Amino acid sequence: MERSRVLLEAARIIRERSEELATMETINNGKSIFEARVDIEISWQTLEYYAGLAGSMAGQHVQLPGGSFGYTRREPLGVCVGIGAWNYPFQIACWKSGPALASGNAMVYKPSPFTPITVVLLAEIFREAGAPPGLFNVVQGGASTGEFLSKHPDVAKISFTGSVPTGSKIMEMASKGIKPVTLELGGKSPLIIFSDSDLENAVNGAMMANFLTQGQVCCNGTRVFVQSNILQKFTEEVVKKVKKIKIGDPLLEDTRMGPLINRPQLEKVFAFIKGAKEQGAKVLTGGEPYIPEDQKLKAGFYMTPCVLGDCKDDMTCVKEEIFGPVMSILPFDTEEEVLERANNSTYGLAAGVFTRDIQRAHRVVASLQAGMCFINNYNVSPVELPFGGYKKSGFGRENGQVTIEYYSQLKTVCVEMGKVESVF
Ligand SMILES: NC(=O)C1=CN([C@@H]2O[C@H](COP(=O)(O)OP(=O)(O)OC[C@H]3O[C@@H](n4cnc5c(N)ncnc54)[C@H](O)[C@@H]3O)[C@@H](O)[C@H]2O)C=CC1
User: Fold this and answer.
1) Ligand 1 centroid – CA 50 distance (Å)
2) Which residue, judged by its Cα, is nearest atom 33 of ligand 1?
3) Ligand 1 centroid vs 394 CA: distance in angstroms?
4) Beta-strand runs (E) in 254-392
5) Most buried of the four, 38, 231, 278, 307, by CB within 10 Å?
6) Which residues contact 112 (CB under 8 A, 6 or more apart)?
7) Radius of gyration of the chain (CA)
């Protein structure tokens, strides 16, 4: 209950300061203030949710023959390390610290060097909320700091969000100390649109699946499979909507797309689009540098959101995570065919299906190789639901009740009520 009170108080402070925190997150990352507000809301909800679970953690009591019994205790792991990515700086820190602190651990958190700011505010908020000094700590730095933390003998667990190559290195380092890891890695998730779906809803779903945070979202549904008989209509509607996305100063109320995180990321995205064209894809809209009229934004890393048509499964833009505002549209004919193609990926973070046929919806998600599946929506992540990947998208879960298991260990106590029956 004590931990719960601290988390509830931290959630209250975040709520109270949400406008200031959202503004800082926009400055930190470049996402629109509109989206940053949603991130902050999800963040305090996460702390409230785990505050609720903190007081209800308990073990089991098991009766054994002769009056003997056993019981289990759920114990903290110790010092947990959180290593975050730059796309959801504050939210990722809350997704990790909420369950970590609720379970009784301390946390050392390293944000991405591209977004160092808001997690420091979170640390201040935890202190103000009554967390003892040293319970939640922020260490700034890049790869070498992350490696130092991952190898440190006093660290009991590492929870990482980021790219597959770095996730693999962290797992390797953790293996030396036999430390558990949670890996939230990349994706190239499929979004399947059947011709019986509500078209407007499906178009909106595809927009939500591709263009939040300038497309820099791990669970984005960037391979949009559309049943051939609605391909043309769907594509026209999507392109119309994408052209209307308001790009510009992320601090303005009506902006829906700010700049990408940095120059290398922008160039990486352009290189993918260039490669896509060379491999035969057609740019239906966007994919160009965008220079806002506002003089002070001229050097920003802006681009126009892009839709690629005439895509084939073996193109690089369809196989690899771009991590920018680029949607690839792929036609399909049958359910069986699209399932095979959707699963033909080394990733397995998320997947979505739009259809009005309820049997088909559940049949399809049952066969999709992805940890987070959406039916008739995309990219909603309520804290009550576990989130995490299959295959190279990682393992372990964030959010939901199950995450307590990833931040604690189980002790079994066996109690003898009779005499020891020695065999010697
Ligand atoms: N799917 C996802 O959620 C994310 C994917 N990415 C992808 O990764 C690419 C590279 O972006 P980065 O920010 O460099 O991602 P990254 O995965 O290398 O970095 C993520 C975090 O890990 C830390 N880190 C880097 N190397 C480390 C190491 N050897 N040991 C311990 N910690 C380490 C970073 O400082 C950062 O805090 C992006 O272009 C994007 O495509 C990046 C961030 C999130």
Assistant:
1) 26
2) 143
3) 14
4) 282-285, 306-309, 326-332, 347-348, 350-354, 372-375, 390-391
5) 307
6) 84, 85, 86, 89, 162
7) 23
303 DSSP assignment = B
The enclosing H or E element of 342 equals helix 335-343
Mutate to test the pocket of ligand 1, among 81, 92, 163, 261 (most ligand atoms within 8 A of CB): 163
Q: What's the gap in Å between 186 CA and the centre of ligand 1?
A: 10
Instruction: Give the pocket of ligand 1 (CB within 6 Å).
Output: 83-87, 110, 112-113, 142-143, 146-147, 150, 161-163, 166, 169-170, 185-186, 218, 265, 268, 321, 323
Closest CA to 222 of 284, 307, 312, 335: 307
In this structure, the number of other CB atoms found within 10 A of the CB of residue 158 comes to: 25
Tokens of 26: 């926009």
Residue appearing with tokens 């991405």:
112
**Nearest atom of ligand 1 to the alpha carbon of 265:** 39
- What is the CB-side half-sphere exposure of residue 30 using CA atoms within 13 A? 25
pTM for this prediction: 0.97
Select from 323, 326, 379, 393 the residue to mutate for testing ligand 1; criterion: most ligand atoms less than 8 Å from CB. Answer: 323
What string of pLDDT tens digits covers the 424 residues of the chain?
A: 999 999 999 999 999 999 999 999 999 999 999 999 999 999 999 999 999 999 999 999 999 999 999 999 999 999 999 999 999 999 999 999 999 999 999 999 999 999 999 999 999 999 999 999 999 999 999 999 999 999 999 999 999 999 999 999 999 999 999 999 999 999 999 999 999 999 999 999 999 999 999 999 999 999 999 999 999 999 999 999 999 999 999 999 999 999 999 999 999 999 999 999 999 999 999 999 999 999 999 999 999 999 999 999 999 999 999 999 999 999 999 999 999 999 999 999 999 999 999 999 999 999 999 999 999 999 998 999 999 999 999 999 999 999 999 999 999 999 999 999 999 9
Predicted-complex ipTM score: 0.95
